[in-house]
UniProtKB/TrEMBL annotation:
One of its GO terms (cellular component) is cytoplasm. Coiled coil: none annotated. It comes from Zeugodacus cucurbitae. GO terms for molecular function: ATP binding; hydrolase activity; RNA helicase activity. This is RNA helicase. The lineage of its organism: Eukaryota, Metazoa, Ecdysozoa, Arthropoda, Hexapoda. The gene is armi. Its EC number is 3.6.4.13. Residues 572-654 form the Helicase MOV-10-like beta-barrel domain. It holds the Pfam family MOV-10_beta-barrel. Keywords: ATP-binding, Cytoplasm, Helicase, Hydrolase, Nucleotide-binding. It is found in: Cytoplasm.
């Protein structure tokens, strides 16, 4: 019994102690609340702003902490006390903030100390509480004085014991109409209320505008008191169009200053039209349409791409007069017809075999009526200074004369050939009440033989005549490739460059091409059958890219690219060939090896098959390529084959290394789990809890970190570059790529180098991977890092391939920083690293690589790290330069290596320049050529929204920076591509008065057309040439001999003015024209400037650029426009070409063909307006392109009297 009472007394004592402890804890809590209240009051006095927006942070205490540990959102109703009250917000129980709008009509009744019943909402995994509604107010203190702190604390303590009422929640879609678009919000009218939605707090997949019909996905209170169980709206989750039509085929009906109309019931604004797409009335587009209420339009276009360009028919015509003075339109070369009052000789032709030759042409004007007819004047159209004809009789200064009844008058013209190519000189014969138009066609050839051929009007080989044969050839190639792929038999491997490692930390699977896909692609008898077969097997190719089909879609596209690569590799195969001994190798001669595509590289294999072997011995032997020389390769076979080889003939098949494709497959299989939907398909901005670095820019653009100024490594950075670097260093967003949008000449690489140096310095824990699409780009970044003198060889490494070393492509100054990879797992083999005399480190294992602060290489070569077993989070940052030139699977290779939790990805590039080269047309059309950079810029958080971000070119600075300062071109050159492709935002930093570029251009004034109007620093000229583009029967590529001749002669003129070959670049879209131009220089034994395709010049610049557009025939213009051949309708290709020059650019082309494209028409008109056009005549309707009817055809002209 005593024991029982003792235990009872002890328990009572423990309970007393517990109450005492609780009392002290509550007293400490009240003290803490008071201190917080004072701190908030001080902040308010200092003018600090609170970001209320009804999102409230809960202080972590036992009463106001998370309400439940259940894994679901919480909606609850409870009582509380108003502890602070401002004009637009207040707090409940010291801890829970609310916006005054939550009180609605009760706002005027709120006072400090009064009780309120409030409805609140708390999301799972969040410490924030949002006060949705203040439902009731009860005032306990009736006098005017504010209640004391003690009384308020008593009330808070009393109410803490009351349990909240919980409600379940559910999601509901609420229809609405956007009434107003604000910079960062939309006002939506719904059946419930007018909702003000902050765009930063919801997911949204389009740029909203006033008038759009939407549905808002909301979390709502489940309240049993309502019939539909819907209580208060707790939180807006996402906003979507009420109706969406995707990829609708529409016709452009109307174009205004900043908006247009599709199909009569849909409108669009020009901000949804890609910069590289210029629309004309009648064009066919693919459009994404959303429902709107903008009378008379019921749809708004939110995304648009050009499907088919309207092709106006030829407009060459002439006008003659009938006997009753009516004007009648007839075709050129009209019949001699006496039914007209006046007849004039048909249009004339002059064919020359060289320049500076002359001919005389006579044209007869005949008066067919019984009264005199008076000629008022004979006027030449076009610029007289470029004309090749002049009127000899009558004198041009006195062209008025009379023609007697039933008589005639002869006009005599003198034609002098001034420049190569074709042109048409037009003149108008004015009578008193009508006019007659005639022209003289002039063709200046290089030889008499060519002139005779033109006179005979031969039919050149065109693509249409080649299509049948080319189709059959492609079909035979695919059939043969399938046969080779299907061959089975024992293969004896050759001797590789290095011993294969048996033990790897992670072995990448082989990812063999599925046989059914291979058969569907290679055995189909037509392209349409192939498309149907492939899409039938892989329906994902017809679907829009999504997280669900991401892996299988890109896997299939990469497989298709590999199939096409395999087909192209068959061009190397030989039915019979033999080897010759060359030391320890067998040598195989291959003609034109350096010019063949795809290229052979070290590691590729040649399979030797005995054509006379019996069925019992079908062994074949693989020889591994160890060296690639000018016109031969050196191979190593199995010792048994190589030692016994004695000059026999073998059938040869060539095979490429599949490792690059395997790395891409591995990456697309791994990336979803690694970075997730938020990274691949962003729909809203996700911020980190804390920035990566608490860094800011002061008023002088100095970098400030924790009150310390961090010096810029490059003091020449401009303000926009500095803002980009600041944004990246802060890294406010979580698991979202940052994009540096770098138009030509804006210092993108300079910005990237500064980012690397600052990250290395300010983030000691960082370890960076820098990936590029090409070795040239990687070498440039490595060189810039060396030039900065901030990093030593031990700080960064330039990872190279054995192929670069063997081809001697590694620049000498980079050799001490270069290394190759040995992928063997640590401890599984001896250390075989070799250090060369130049400082290169070969066969480096994991203990040497991956430890540097910075590793630079191509995206594909960085994939070697995938097999080396680096731990998660080993690399913290991935920077991709020229990311617009990489396919998405390529950039995913290094991204698989970055830390998911604290990593950062930076994509630098320009979506308006060339994309990645994809040789499989089917795969390219289904998105393989679209880079991650370009695709991400089409997602809502990255879309341009000028209303929301007016100070940063319309881009969210947390995600994108667009560089604008151009350091390359004179303003006259920059203006063209800035207006066409970059919203006229680029700012010229090259002074047009006091700069090297301006001075050099002035020295070349003697070569430029004479003009008093044209500014002295105008650097872009168009040389019109009407000539014939040709094809050879064995090649689909085009060339234009006369245009090439004009380019060659212009280069000679530049040489005579002291310009060096290295300062000139010649760009042309066709390899056949490249070869033709090179031949001209070689045959003339003249120093050759760099001549190449647009792809070869991307990322480069020259003082002077000469562009040969090649295409001149209008016969196939429809095909050119639809398939973007050459420069025609290929805006990205044009953009790269015209943005390479520093101070002078000559464009050679046919204006009669190029003017059909909006971009080229703008460029030509710019030259014409500045008197910088020379050469052939311009199209008659150049100034005003023919008006198109509702069917997209050119409307019939009616001549005026």
């Amino acid at each position: 019994m005593l024991s029982f009472f003792k235990n009872l007394w002890d328990s009572m004592d423990a309970e007393k102690q517990k109450r005492l402890f609780a009392s002290k804890l509550e007293e400490e809590q009240r003290h803490l609340d008071t201190e917080i209240e004072k701190e908030e009051s001080e902040k308010a006095k200092k003018g600090e702003n609170f970001n209320m927006q009804n999102v409230l942070r809960c202080i972590n205490d036992p009463q106001n902490g998370p309400l439940s540990s259940n894994e679901e959102d919480k909606c609850f109703e409870r009582l509380g006390v108003i502890t602070t009250l401002k004009s637009n917000h207040g707090t409940i129980d010291h801890a829970i903030f609310f916006d005054i709008d939550a009180a609605g009509g009760l706002a005027s009744e709120l006072k400090i100390g009064c009780h309120v019943k409030y409805l609140a909402y708390q999301q799972v995994h969040s410490d924030h509480i949002k006060v949705v509604q203040i439902k009731d107010v009860s005032e306990l203190f009736w006098d005017e004085t504010m209640p004391s702190t003690e009384k308020i604390e008593e009330q808070i303590a009393e109410l803490r014991n009351e349990k909240p009422t919980f409600f379940s929640t559910h999601q509901r879609n609420i229809l609405g109409l956007i009434m107003e678009r604000k910079p960062g919000a939309i006002v939506v009218d719904t059946e419930h209320k007018l909702m003000n939605i902050n765009l930063d707090t919801v997911e949204i997949d389009f740029i909203p505008q006033a008038g759009d019909r939407v549905f808002i996905c909301c979390n709502v209170q489940s309240d049993e008191h309502f019939v539909n169980r819907q209580g208060e709206i707790l939180q807006e989750v996402s906003v979507h169009p009420a109706r969406l039509l995707k990829q609708e085929k529409c016709k452009v009906r109307r174009l205004n200053t900043d908006w247009g109309v599709l199909n009569d019931d849909c409108y669009f604004t020009f901000d949804v039209v890609p910069n590289t797409c210029k629309l004309d009335i009648g064009d066919i587009v693919l459009a994404d349409l959303i429902e709107c209420e903008r009378d008379p339009y019921i749809w708004r276009c939110i995304k648009l791409s050009l499907l088919e360009r309207t092709i106006p028919p030829a407009t060459t015509s002439t006008i003659t007069a009938t006997s009753n003075n009516e004007v009648k339109k007839t075709v050129l070369n009209p019949r001699k017809d006496n039914n007209h009052a006046i007849t004039v000789t048909e249009d004339a032709r002059c064919i020359f075999s060289a320049t500076f030759q002359t001919q005389r042409i006579e044209m007869v004007i005949k008066n067919n009526i019984e009264r005199n007819m008076r000629v008022l004047s004979i006027d030449f159209l076009g610029r007289r200074r470029d004309s090749q004809i002049k009127l000899v009789d009558p004198d041009h200064d006195n062209t008025a004369f009379e023609i007697a009844a039933n008589s005639s008058r002869t006009l005599v013209f003198e034609v002098e050939s001034k420049f190569y190519g074709e042109s048409r000189e037009v003149f108008i014969i004015k009578f008193e009440s009508f006019r007659v138009k005639r022209s003289i066609f002039i063709a200046v050839c290089e030889t008499e033989a060519e002139a005779e051929a033109v006179r005979a009007q031969p039919n050149h080989i065109t693509a249409s005549t080649l299509n049948g044969g080319a189709q059959n050839l492609r079909q035979r190639s695919r059939h043969y490739a399938n046969q080779v792929w299907s061959n089975k038999g024992e293969v004896i491997p050759g001797v590789g460059l290095a011993t294969k490692r048996r033990f790897l930390s992670l072995r990448i699977p082989y990812y063999e091409v599925p046989e059914r896909l291979r058969n569907a692609y290679l055995t189909s008898t037509s392209r349409q059958e192939m498309i149907d077969n492939v899409e039938g097997m892989f329906p994902c190719l017809k679907e829009e890219l999504s997280l669900k089909n991401y892996t299988i879609r890109f896997e299939t596209l990469v497989f298709l690219e590999e199939i096409e690569y395999f087909v192209n590799f068959r061009n190397y195969d030989r039915e019979r060939a033999h080897f010759t001994r060359d030391g320890e190798f067998l040598s195989l001669t291959i003609e034109n090896l350096s010019e063949r595509r795809p290229s052979l590289v070290i590691g590729d294999t040649v399979r030797a098959i005995n054509p006379w072997c019996n069925d019992d011995d079908k062994r074949s032997y693989d020889g591994v390529i160890h060296k690639v020389l000018f016109n031969r390769v050196l191979l190593k076979f199995n010792e048994g084959f190589q030692s016994k080889y004695n000059g026999e003939d073998y059938r040869l098949e060539f095979y490429y290394s599949r490792f690059a494709f395997r790395k891409q497959h591995f990456a697309v299989n791994r990336i979803i789990k690694h970075v997730g939907e938020q990274f691949l398909f962003p729909s809203r901005v996700h911020n980190r809890e804390e920035p990566q670095l608490q860094i800011e820019l002061d008023s002088d653009d100095n970098l400030i970190l924790q009150d310390t100024t961090c010096p810029w490594f490059n003091p020449l950075l401009n303000p926009i570059q500095k803002r980009a670097i600041r944004n990246i260093l802060r890294g406010e967003t979580h698991n979202m790529p940052y994009i540096i949008f770098g138009p030509p000449g804006t210092g993108k690489t300079m910005t990237l180098v500064e980012i690397v140096l600052q990250l290395v310095k300010l983030l000691p824990s960082s370890r960076l991977l820098i990936g590029t699409p090409s070795n040239g780009s990687a070498d440039l970044i490595a060189t810039r890092l060396i030039d900065s003198k901030q990093l030593q060889p031990g700080d960064f490494v330039r990872l190279v391939s054995q192929n670069q070393i063997e081809k001697e492509l590694v620049p000498e100054h980079l050799m001490p920083y270069c290394a190759t990879v040995d992928m063997a797992a640590d401890g599984t083999c001896d250390d075989s690293m070799i250090v060369t005399e130049s400082g290169m480190k070969l066969r480096c294992q994991m203990k040497y690589l991956g430890r540097h602060r910075v590793t630079i290489s191509t995206c594909t070569t960085l994939g070697n790290f995938l097999q080396m077993g680096f731990p998660p989070g080993h690399f913290t940052h991935v920077l991709i330069d020229e990311s617009g030139q990489c396919t998405e699977p390529e950039v995913m290779v290094p991204m698989c290596l970055v830390s998911q939790k604290r990593g950062q990805v930076i994509l630098a590039g320009d979506p308006h320049q060339l994309q990645a080269i994809v040789i499989n047309r089917f795969a390219s059309e289904r998105g393989l050529s679209v880079s991650l950079l370009e695709r991400i810029l089409g997602r809502t958080p990255y879309l341009r929204d000028v209303m929301r971000f007016p100070d940063t070119s319309g881009f969210d600075p947390r995600l994108v920076t667009k560089l604008l300062y151009n350091y390359r071109s004179l303003p006259s050159i920059l203006n063209v591509y800035s207006e066409l492709f970059y919203d006229s935002e680029l700012r010229a930093m090259v002074n047009e008065k006091n700069s090297r570029e301006a001075d050099m251009l002035k020295k070349l004034d003697v070569l430029l057309p004479v003009s008093e109007k044209r500014p002295k620093t105008h650097g872009i000229f168009f040389y019109g040439t009407r000539s014939e583009n040709k094809q050879e029967s064995d090649s689909p590529s085009w060339f234009n001999p006369l245009e090439a001749r004009n380019v060659f002669l212009m280069t000679i003129k530049l040489y005579r003015q002291g310009i060096q070959p290295e300062n000139i670049g010649i760009i042309t879209p066709y390899m056949k024209q490249v070869k033709h131009l090179r031949t001209l220089f070689i045959e003339a034994d003249i120093a050759m400037p760099k001549i190449g395709s647009v792809e070869e010049f991307q990322g480069q610049e020259r003082d002077i650029i000469l562009i040969s557009t090649v295409r001149s025939s209008q016969k196939l213009i429809g095909s050119d426009l639809r398939h973007a051949l050459g420069f025609v309708q290929s805006a990205k290709r044009m953009n790269v070409a015209i943005s390479r020059a520093r101070y002078l650019m000559f464009i050679f082309g046919n204006p009669h063909l190029l003017y059909l494209d909006h971009c080229w028409r703008s460029c030509i008109k710019y030259c014409v307006d500045n008197e910088a056009y020379l050469g052939c005549d311009l199209p008659d309707d150049f100034e005003t392109r023919p008006e198109l009817n509702e069917n997209g055809a050119m409307m019939d002209e009616t001549a005026s009297k």
